[in-house]
Design a protein that fits this description.
single chain; 503 residues; six-stranded mixed sheet; globular; Rossmann fold; 17 helices; alpha/beta; 3 domains; 21 strands; 32% helix
Length: 503
């Protein structure tokens, strides 16, 4: 939470400056290690006034470390940062705020029962000031936000909550805005609104550092892009003329980025899983209600929707983990794989080894256990085989699974769930937070299993991913399926509107 009124003396109140003015922010020679791991290695970053700069990189490439240094959470081992010609005191969040640097995190960090105005002015001298509502309304209007100052945060949409989080920074006069994966929980129309607001803020002299895994968004909204790989800057250039493929190669290398994805299968086969008028109760209300769904062999059914519209309940009832409150689930096979969205808490046991997590589905097999003991040697051999096949980033099968990054955790899940070639695969947010290489690996796995005859339910908030992989698309909104699309060509705009509840 931000504290203190830091609005005085930042660049948002300065007069317009010529285009040839010095950069707003310059980071030079930034290096940071955590034990033996070098997170940032001699990183340079330059941001100009009125510029939207995308920051790209794989998981573990050093993006989070660099941003944490800029906002004062970490002190680098080497290097310096200059803001508007003045050295920034590193390792001090207060100094970063006073220099005009602010971060909008993915969780927004707002108080649900407070109004828009109360959330915006919380921690400043304007708390309790009657003029605060007027000032908040004026700043919201200037940024292009349609926010009612007296509306409580709990009554706002996800897109509006994000606007409030950005408005908190603007109210304090901060003019170097860092947006961390800002579209991760937005529908396509909401993302488009955000992009319009970002361009408006940039034209007003604000500088924006934009972190995303979605290459399409970089070419759509960013002016410049800095790409990190293994903690080093491998590209720092204009977005103009840069293709998605080129960005992918720069991020992960040609070997992974060059492998194309063929997303269409042959005609779907027999029915494997059917949900008929299924409703699931969650916390006293229906999480999903009267859902009908049929999954067949050789097809991927994509579920498109914004976070919190019943996707988790749908995944769990489809996987057979929870029973429907009403309706019926019919599944013609027991070979069902479930890849939950919460990898560490729902899919894996962090306090156990990688080898043990990989063996969960096989513990009862005679090849892995005796009634009185486990064959630890065979479990270790299985782990080594799966680590090599799925390129799990470790050479120590007995190390704790919680030590892996998000991409590594997902590879463990995929290895365990898919190595026995299940007939039905339920994949919930399978690429969320993953870098380009890891995400591409997950998508190829799902397509490969579809093509060998499995049926896949793909639940994702990334509409591009759903449209790229799916043979049919269902749109979920407030726990109900509100639209279904089939065929080789999907209307992206219409599906995006349906995701937001618009007809």
């Amino acid at each position: 939470m931000l504290t203190g009124d830091t609005s005085a003396g930042t660049a948002s109140e300065e007069e317009a400056v010529p285009a040839s003015s010095p950069p707003v922010l310059q980071a030079r020679g930034i290096s940071k290690s955590f034990g033996e791991r070098l997170a940032n290695d001699d990183v340079d970053l330059t941001v100009n006034r009125g510029e939207i700069r995308a920051l790209l990189g794989e998981n573990g490439a050093g993006k989070t470390t660099l941003i944490s240094i800029l906002c004062g959470q970490y002190r680098p081992d080497a290097g310096h940062v200059v803001v508007r010609g003045h050295p920034l005191t590193l390792g001090s969040p207060r100094a970063a705020l006073q220099a005009g640097i602010g971060v909008v995190h993915q969780d927004f960090r707002l108080v649900p029962r407070f109004t828009v105005t109360e959330n915006v002015v919380l921690g400043t001298s304007a708390w309790g000031n009657r003029r605060a509502e007027i000032e908040v309304a004026e700043r919201a209007h200037a940024a292009g936000f349609r926010l009612e100052p007296r509306t409580p945060a709990w009554a706002l949409s996800v897109g509006e909550l994000q606007q409030v989080a950005i408005l908190k920074l603007l109210y304090r006069g901060l003019d170097i805005l860092i947006l961390d994966e800002p579209t991760a929980v937005l529908s396509p129309p909401q993302a488009e609104e955000l992009f319009v607001s970002m361009r408006r803020l940039a034209s007003d002299g604000k500088s924006i550092i934009f972190i995303t895994h979605r290459l399409r968004e970089v070419t759509k909204v960013a002016d410049e892009v800095t790409i990190l790989r293994h903690g080093r800057v491998v590209a720092d250039r204009s977005v103009a003329g840069l293709s998605h493929h080129q960005m992918g190669v720069l991020m992960v290398g040609a070997s992974d980025a060059d492998r194309a994805i063929e997303a269409r299968a042959e005609t779907a086969g027999e029915s494997l899983l059917e949900l008929s008028s299924v409703s699931v109760e969650g916390r006293g209300v229906m999480a999903v209600e009267s859902i009908d769904l049929v999954l067949r062999r050789n097809e991927i059914v994509g579920i498109a929707g914004i976070s919190g519209n019943g996707q988790t309940a749908l995944a769990e009832v489809a996987a057979g983990i929870v029973r429907p409150a009403s309706g019926r689930r019919r599944c013609s096979t027991t070979a069902v794989a479930y890849i939950p969205e919460d990898r560490l808490n729902r899919g894996l046991v962090g306090s156990m080894s990688i080898a043990s997590n990989l063996a969960f589905r096989r513990y009862r097999n005679r090849s892995m256990s005796h009634p009185l003991w486990l064959w630890t040697g065979r479990i270790a051999a299985l782990a080594r085989d799966l680590i090599e096949t799925f390129k799990i980033p470790t050479d120590r099968p007995r190390s704790m699974v919680s030590e892996l990054s998000g991409g590594g955790l997902q590879r463990v899940l995929l290895a365990r769930e898919l190595s026995e070639e299940p007939d039905v695969i339920i994949a919930a947010q399978p690429t969320r937070g993953l870098d380009v290489a890891s995400a591409a690996m997950v998508r190829r796995q799902l397509l490969g299993h579809r093509d060998r005859g499995a049926g896949v339910i793909l639940i994702s908030e990334d509409l591009d991913e759903v449209l790229e992989l799916s043979d049919r698309v269902l749109v979920i909104f407030k726990g109900a399926i509100v639209a279904e699309y089939a065929g080789k060509h999907f209307d992206r705009s219409e599906i995006g509107l349906r995701m937001g509840g618009e007809v």
